[in-house]
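tool_call: predict_structure(chain=1)
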Amino acid sequence: MIDRTPLENYLLYSSAVNSLIVFVLVGFVGWYRRDPIGRFYTYAMTCVALWSASYAGWRSVDNDAQRYLFIQLLTIFSGLAPTFYISFLHKYTRYKNTVIERSLWFAMVPAIFLALTPKGIVELHDYTYVYHWPVAGVAYYPYLFLWFIAALYSLYVILQHLKTVRNTHERGDAYLFLIATIIAYMGGVTNFPMWFGIEIAAYGNITTSFYGIVLGYLVLARGFLDVRVIVRKTIIFSMLIAILSSITGLLVTGITSILTIFNLHFSIPALIVLTSIVISLTASPLRTFLATLTDKWLFQNEYR
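tool_result:
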């Protein structure tokens, strides 16, 4: 049993929650949207989820070799996440700068490798309320600089996108998206001071979950990333199949039970015909009802 401080417990459990929430978001968007926009969003959020999982791994192990391994993993994923995020934003928004995007990729990859060297992660240091925190060396600085450049440029792209949005509904979504991104990056920033000997606790770690929840709301309730139409069809089809299967099962069970009680003979083909008639009569109105119910949930703005 590892003896942890309250702050260490917070970092462990908040990272685990972050990872779980973002993985759910990744699975949902990645399944329903497989074009370049969905693909690069999935790449970016997968890196965020793996960063959170590596963070939780780092805070859960009890020897330095494993700690160094998880710190190196979270460094890799932390560097790749904002870079993939920029690629996603360029494809999603109307603003695109391929020179900056390619330059960031060209610079970030070697910067990550430099940060992983002994000159990047020098040692592990114990603070008052948290132990085994990495200390950054000179080789870590290019990585940190590029991370901030990528984060700030991401916000710039979203702001440029806001200038082109005229639809009130889309503009509101874009503002929510911007706020969630700012809060997520601000939470990530709180992890850096202790790398440089400044004892400021990383309480902002949980903001990754906030980002996942807000994006989940935007995707499901507001139509962000345009996956609602596909989701709508899937939900309606799944509920329709489930209800019709239940009706068929109850109908067959009920008829056979009644006939058995009264010692009556029944014909299997006749039973099939009867259930088919019932299904054909109920399928269309049931589908209409489920469509209306689903639309009121997914397209709630149109019902206000």
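agent: Strands lie at 121-125, 133-136. Proceeding to next step.
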